[in-house]
């Protein structure tokens, strides 16, 4: 008969953990789970904080001031229309000397004006010189009558000088050579050639005018 030693505890069965080992594993699992939960919580807080910051930054962005591109070309300012040129023969647009002008009764051509005191003095010894500051200027005139009845140059034709001072000058010069006033009455087709003379300011710029009858004056350049 064999004797059993009761002082040594029996060995545990294989494949079945002891109660202490089971308790230790449970604690480790619990600690691991707690750690994972804490990490997950921190991650969640971190994501929420980032989201709030982005949302806050989006909220405080100023509104865009960029004007949308409509694709339309810029509108150029309209060019103001040019003023029409003044009518030829007016003071603003005088004819050159030598231009033929006329109406239903007369056709006129003014020749080149010239200073003529020497000629006038020689024409008549009793002619007086021009006043101080003035000169005697002769203007040759060719006039053709083309009306239905008759015309007289010294009655129908007037030549004057308009200075840049806007004053009209028409003073008599005395006895002059080839005076137009000496031409008599003309009928249709009759031609008168002669001179007229006007006392004008010495060296003054200006324009000449020719008038027939009661019509408006026609302006010519001084040279």
Outline the structure in words:
The protein is an alpha+beta fold. Helices cover 23% and strands 26% of the residues. The strands form 3 sheets. Strands 1, 2, 3, 4 and 9 form a 5-stranded antiparallel sheet that branches. The longest helix is centred in the N-terminal third of the chain and has 41 residues, at 19-59. Residues 1-24, 54-104 are annotated as: Disordered. InterPro entries: Immunoprotect_excell_Ig-like (IPR029050). Residues 54-69 have a biased composition (Polar residues). Keywords: Signal.
Alpha-carbon distance between the two ends: 172 Å
Summarize the biggest pleated sheet: 5 strands, antiparallel
The class by helix and strand makeup works out as alpha+beta
- Mean pLDDT metric: 80
* Gyration radius, in Å: 60 Å
Helical content stands at 10-25%
Query: What would the CATH topology of the largest domain be?
Result: Immunoglobulin-like
Relative strand content: 25-35%
* Gross morphology: elongated
Please identify, by name, the CATH architecture of the largest domain.
Sandwich
Low-confidence stretches: 1-24, 38-59
CATH first level of the largest domain:
Mainly Beta
Give me the count of strands: 11
Counted up, domains total 2
- Determine the number of helices (DSSP H or I, runs of at least 4 residues): 3
Order of helices and strands: HEEEHEEHEEEEEE
